């Protein structure tokens, strides 16, 4: 349609939102649907955080806030980076936005010129290439491999960097693969980046607190202090504190970049919700005991779904270190035919047929830039996971 902006033709709608909506529509028609497509914890926001928001309303904290966030939250963010990541950011080196997605968007809006390249390892979170394209940049996708744990390899990164590379975007633990880098694995990547001083590092640490067993989370500027001056460390409260609807994300980085992002945000959304910001102060500064409760529940669910999927002939499911997703491969199932007569030619055919016949909603790997795989979100109860796992098995066994 001629009325619409050209920029729109460069982006795709979010496949995860589309699949979640399809599942909702089927449910509304009375179908028994189990949704494993959503990217949010099924837990409720802890009460101490809700109460901090209610108190903020009662105190009249209901006005515009400074664009980059209330001073109390920027101080809490600086304390968090020091306490959990050994990173020294002054409050003036932090910014608060309307969710992590907004912070990523503003960082690109503030820095990308036409032709600038952003290196993105695949499988990637669906929004990364689209945000880069909307901001006028060029996404450069670098494949990772299941037998390397879906982690970016130094030599592949080295090959992808050109004089036009402006950013490398890292995400550990990853949406959709759940892969998280150990210190040594991340050091191999940062060693490459040290050799390319024109390249900046954007790290999306949204799933930091969701790592399992004795895995230790690390972030690039911590592993390689030489990158501190050109790293934007992004995080948020959405996933760790079960606060997806509150819309708070934040970042720490060099002051000049933060100031540029502040300028962009000032002509755009301004400061995010005052009430959510006070809730986030409590999330970061208050008791942290629920983190272990969430983590233990997720770890049990991960082990359950990985075990069921791996008992299914044709599915190979690695055990990821973190997040609440698994990303099984379905190579042997491509080319088979479902009882409906539908031929499964792609991973998208697989997830659509699975949803139509068994009422299990997942997301196809091709929307994350790598397949044939599908993403299963295990942010749901053990009972539902078990039932969904059985339905997936039944579906796969019905393919001929
Ligand atoms: C990797 C990753 N980064 C960022 C976000 C966005 O988080 P927020 O809800 O805070 O915008 C998500 C949400 O799904 C995500 O998976």
Automatic annotation (TrEMBL):
Residue ranges of every copy of the Aminotransferase class I/classII large domain listed in the record: 32-392
Keywords, ordered alphabetically: Aminotransferase, Pyridoxal phosphate, Transferase
Organism superkingdom: Bacteria
Molecular function terms from GO: L-aspartate:2-oxoglutarate aminotransferase activity
InterPro entries: Aminotransferase_I/II_large, AspAT/PAT-like, NHTrfase_class1_PyrdxlP-BS, PyrdxlP-dep_Trfase, PyrdxlP-dep_Trfase_major, PyrdxlP-dep_Trfase_small
Coiled-coil intervals: none
EC id: 2.6.1.-
Reactions catalysed, as given in the entry: L-aspartate + 2-oxoglutarate = oxaloacetate + L-glutamate
Cofactor entry: pyridoxal 5'-phosphate
Pfam name, any one: Aminotran_1_2
Class of this enzyme: transferase
Family: Belongs to the class-I pyridoxal-phosphate-dependent aminotransferase family.
Name assigned to this protein: Aminotransferase
Taxonomic lineage of the native organism: Bacteria, Pseudomonadati, Pseudomonadota, Alphaproteobacteria, Hyphomicrobiales
């Amino acid at each position: 349609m001629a009325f619409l902006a050209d920029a729109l033709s460069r982006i795709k709608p979010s496949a995860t939102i589309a699949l979640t909506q399809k599942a909702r529509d089927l449910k509304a028609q009375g179908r028994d649907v189990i949704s494993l497509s959503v990217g949010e914890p099924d837990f409720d926001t802890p009460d101490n955080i809700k109460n901090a928001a209610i108190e903020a309303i009662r105190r009249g904290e209901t006005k515009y806030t400074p664009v980059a966030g209330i001073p109390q939250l920027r101080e809490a963010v600086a304390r968090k980076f020091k306490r959990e990541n050994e990173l020294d950011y002054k409050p003036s080196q932090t910014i608060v936005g309307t969710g992590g997605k907004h912070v990523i968007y503003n960082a690109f809006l503030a820095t990308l010129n036409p032709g600038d390249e952003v290196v993105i390892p695949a499988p990637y979170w669906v929004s990364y290439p689209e945000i880069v394209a909307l901001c006028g940049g060029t996404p450069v996708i670098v494949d990772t491999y299941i037998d390397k744990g879906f982690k970016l390899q130094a030599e592949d990164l080295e090959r992808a960097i050109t004089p036009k590379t402006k950013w490398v975007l890292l995400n550990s633990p990853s949406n959709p693969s759940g892969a998280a880098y150990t210190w040594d694995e991340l050091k191999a990547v940062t060693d490459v980046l040290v050799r390319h001083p024109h390249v900046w590092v954007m790290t999306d640490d949204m799933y930091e607190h969701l790592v399992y067993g004795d895995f230790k989370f690390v972030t690039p500027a911590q592993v390689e202090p030489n990158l501190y001056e050109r790293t934007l460390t992004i995080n948020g409260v959405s996933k760790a504190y079960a606060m997806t609807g509150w819309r708070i994300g934040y970042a720490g980085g060099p002051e000049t970049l933060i100031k540029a992002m502040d300028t962009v945000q000032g002509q755009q959304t301004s400061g995010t919700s005052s009430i959510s910001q006070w809730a986030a102060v409590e999330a970061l500064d208050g008791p942290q005991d629920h983190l272990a409760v969430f983590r233990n529940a997720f770890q049990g669910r991960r082990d359950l779904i990985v075990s069921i999927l791996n008992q299914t002939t044709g599915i190979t499911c690695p055990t990821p270190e973190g997040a609440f997703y698994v990303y099984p491969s379905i190579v042997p199932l491509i080319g088979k035919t479902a009882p409906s007569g539908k031929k499964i030619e792609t991973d998208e055919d697989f997830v659509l047929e699975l949803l139509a016949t068994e009422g299990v909603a997942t997301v196809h790997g091709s929307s994350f830039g790598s397949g044939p795989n599908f993403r299963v979100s295990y942010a749901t109860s053990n009972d539902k996971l078990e039932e969904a796992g059985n339905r997936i098995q039944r579906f796969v066994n019905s393919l001929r």
